[in-house]
Sequence to fold (196 residues):
Amino acid sequence: GNTQEVSIMGDGFSTSISTIIVTGGDVSIPSFERTSFTMIKATFVVSASATTGSRDIIVTNADGTTGTGNGIFAVTVPLQVSSVEPSSHGQGADLVKLIVYGQGFVDGATVGFVGGAIQITVQKVDFIGSNQLNILVDIETGSPPQSYSVVVTNPDGTSGQAANAFTVTSAPVVDSVIPSSLGQGAYDQWVQIMGN
Fold:
């Protein structure tokens, strides 16, 4: 399961806490520590099969008194990055629009590229929904032509990555033209442009 450190804020937490329960099942709390009258630090383990949605947290002091935080915790879809469209673009392009698909995105998410001597700058990220981000990137002329992984990071620090999801391709190189000249007034002439 997914393990996360959680701070539970409230009031009246005694020096001896008996139990902490997250309603709805599939969320266990293997350890916790009462740090003050108003805070408990706990380790939550969320099962991969846990139902998404809001949960209550019930804290019971050693004397049997309880407090309930209604709907203060939520199980969400894990952040995953599935693909990028288009999946490739040439070197030396500015403000290229790419669409990042996945799940678990939230507003304020950032996008980055990983791999090699990367020279791809993300200029803008637009949050479209939990499964789509639109981004504008600059691809420097010197960016090595290769595949790069795409990483999305939510504001809470969780991240997901799609390995080798975007490829920088070589910019066209023009070497020569045959014939290399034409007389004035020439028209409808075949010309060969050589390059790569």
Notes: The longest strand covers residues 93-103. The radius of gyration is 27 Å. The chain has a mean pLDDT of 92.
